[in-house]
Amino acid sequence: RESNSYIKWATDQGHTVFVISWVNPDRKLALKGFDDYLTEGALTAIDVVCQQTGEKEVNMIGYCLGGTLLGSTMGYMAAKKDKRIASATFFVALLDFSIPGELGVFIDEGQVSSLEKKMEERGFLEGSEMGTTFNMLRSNDLI
User: Fold this and answer.
1) Distance CA 104, CA 116 (A)
2) pLDDT in tens, 95-124
3) pLDDT score for 136
4) pLDDT per residue over 28-81, tens digit each?
5) CB of 103 within 8 A of CB of 133?
6) Residue whose C-alpha is closest to residue 55's, from 10, 91, 17
7) Whether pLDDT at 133 is above 70
8) Which residues are catalytic?
9) 37: which residues sit within 8 A by CB, 6+ positions away?
10) What letter would DSSP give residue 90?
11) Closest to 45 (Cα-Cα) out of 12, 81, 21, 28
């Protein structure tokens, strides 16, 4: 909504804003992994933004799993001495999976194994399966 849009606010302040979003995977993307999202997604997006704007650095925001991807991208770029990310902001992004917070209540080794098996058979994780966990996290909002 325009009344509470971060993108509108940022552009009103004179910032050029680019947005990327996840592709909803299906069988065609079964062989793609997280590293592909990093190299073909985040890194390519940074390349394109710098190319289109002439800027040498970008400021980035990562939301949810996009934040996990952003954190991983920053680590990868640091190892390569690539300093094009000037700043990063994370919204509801899990970066340390050893401390999953409330999410840990809903996920145990058995569930992870079951999901991994389904993903291996299908080649991707159904969005509805991921959505169920997130719906439980905010169950009070759903009542």
Assistant:
1) 17
2) 988 887 777 777 778 888 888 888 888 888
3) 67
4) 888 888 999 999 999 999 999 999 999 999 999 999 889 999 999 999 999 999
5) yes
6) 17
7) no
8) 64
9) 69
10) E
11) 21
Residue 105 contacts residue 99 (beta carbons within 8 Å):
no
Quote the tokens at residue 10.
Answer: 């940022």
Alpha-carbon distance values, 68 to 4, 51, 64, 112, 138 (Å): 24, 25, 7, 18, 20
Angle value at C-alpha 130, between 100 and 3, nearest 5 degrees: 90
Task: State the amino acid at position 62 in one-letter form.
Answer: G
Q: If you search the block for the tokens 């098996």, which residue do you land on?
A: 117
Q: How do the domains of the chain map onto residue ranges?
A: 1-95, 98-143
Handedness of CA 73, 75, 76, 81 (dihedral sign): positive
